[in-house]
């Protein structure tokens, strides 16, 4: 199960009445298109879903990434409530779904859990983001961009490059972000080139980087030289205009964070604390805490503990410091999100639990009860 914090705003409006009025005014030519856009930007997501069906021009407008970005900024200005977006795999129905869970349990802004079916579903699908209300879904074969607020999915074309004869690519890591300088959404694919070998199965050749631009719906190659990255849940993070992966430290040995600047398209490596210099059997999780990158070291077991480190100054290795240890906690598998003064985590059965950092209490959240969910 993957979780992220979104802002889909759902304040109650008379959306159908507004939509009918706007459509009438547009048909009569008495309402400029710019004014229609401004009014639609004021509507909450639930109303926009209905407005998508009013006419083709509205559907085109509402599904534009630029509209999504502007609408998100309007939501922030109005201080509408955030929601938690949960992605899980339903084994008994063999499909992946997303659900919104409001961070408020009462009032006009409450969002009841709703199920959004994801195309190309499988249990290995991972959610990256959010970025301006959009998320990226990937199992490292298919890559899908999604606007969950308006239930819009876009399956990206398969990268196609003329690799040297006899070499094949396999995805190692995927990143996703927005470039404010070019007003462009980008997807980054880090892949391994390898060659088939009759005795070894395959032989490693090199690591390549490919970038997708949403505006052109196409991939392009780069000359970037980067280390190998690892694909683990919660080990990939969008933060501070950069995307980050858990990676090898090719200069010093041990481990590092591979960082990619979305606008400048520049990679850099950020060393992890010396405690990560040698393999220790622990997994690494990267989350945002106190507007900084937090590193969580943990080894999933019957009783799991989480060592929490914080990089207080972005990119400065000496600013890493250990904050505290959480646990041991019974049957907790991995961390997923810091929210206010809580750490949300996933149990081995896929259930979501909340750990209060102040009271040190663990509470199971009634997000779903069906068995066989992740």
From TrEMBL:
Q: Which InterPro entries match?
A: F-box-assoc_dom_typ1, F-box-assoc_interact_dom, F-box-like_dom_sf, F-box_dom, SCF_F-box_component
Coiled-coil stretches are none
Q: Which PROSITE patterns match?
A: FBOX
SMART domains from the UniProt entry: FBOX (SM00256)
Domain F-box positions? 25-72
Superkingdom in the source lineage: Eukaryota
Show the NCBIfam families listed in the entry: F_box_assoc_1 (TIGR01640)
Q: What protein name does the entry list?
A: F-box domain-containing protein
């Amino acid at each position: 199960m993957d979780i992220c914090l979104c802002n889909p705003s759902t304040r109650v409006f008379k959306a159908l009445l507004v939509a009918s009025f706007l459509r009438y005014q547009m048909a009569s030519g008495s309402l400029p298109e710019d004014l229609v856009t401004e009014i639609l930007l004021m509507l909450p997501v639930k109303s926009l879903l209905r407005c998508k069906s009013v006419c083709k021009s509205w559907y085109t407008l509402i599904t534009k990434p630029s509209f999504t970005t502007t609408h998100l900024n309007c939501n922030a200005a109005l201080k509408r409530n955030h929601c938690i977006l949960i992605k899980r795999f339903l084994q008994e129905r063999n499909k992946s779904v997303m659900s919104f869970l409001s961070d408020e349990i009462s009032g006009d802004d409450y969002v009841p859990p709703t199920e959004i079916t994801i195309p190309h579903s499988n249990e290995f699908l991972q959610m990256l983001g959010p970025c301006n209300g959009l998320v990226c879904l990937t199992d490292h074969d298919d890559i899908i961009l999604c606007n969950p607020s308006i239930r819009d999915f876009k399956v990206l074309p398969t990268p196609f490059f003329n690799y040297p004869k006899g070499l094949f690519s396999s995805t190692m890591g995927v990143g996703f972000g927005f470039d404010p300088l070019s007003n462009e959404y980008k997807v980054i694919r880090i892949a391994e080139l390898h060659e088939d070998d009759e005795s070894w199965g395959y032989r490693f050749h090199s690591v390549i980087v490919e970038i997708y631009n949403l505006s052109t719906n196409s991939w392009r190659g780069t000359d970037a030289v980067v280390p190998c990255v690892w694909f683990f849940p919660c080990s990939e993070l969008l933060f501070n205009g950069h995307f980050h992966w858990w990676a090898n430290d090719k200069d010093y040995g041990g481990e590092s964070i591979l960082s990619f600047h979305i606008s400048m398209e520049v990679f850099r490596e950020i060393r992890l604390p010396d405690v990560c210099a040698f393999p220790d059997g622990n997994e690494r999780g990267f989350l945002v805490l106190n507007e900084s990158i937090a590193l969580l070291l943990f080894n999933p077991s019957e009783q799991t503990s989480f060592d929490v480190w914080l990089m207080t100054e972005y990119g400065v290795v000496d600013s890493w410091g250990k904050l505290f240890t959480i646990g041991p906690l019974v049957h907790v598998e991995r961390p997923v999100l810091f929210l206010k003064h809580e750490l949300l985590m996933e149990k081995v059965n896929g259930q979501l639990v909340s750990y209060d950092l102040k009271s040190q209490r663990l509470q199971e959240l009634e997000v779903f009860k069906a068995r066989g969910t992740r």
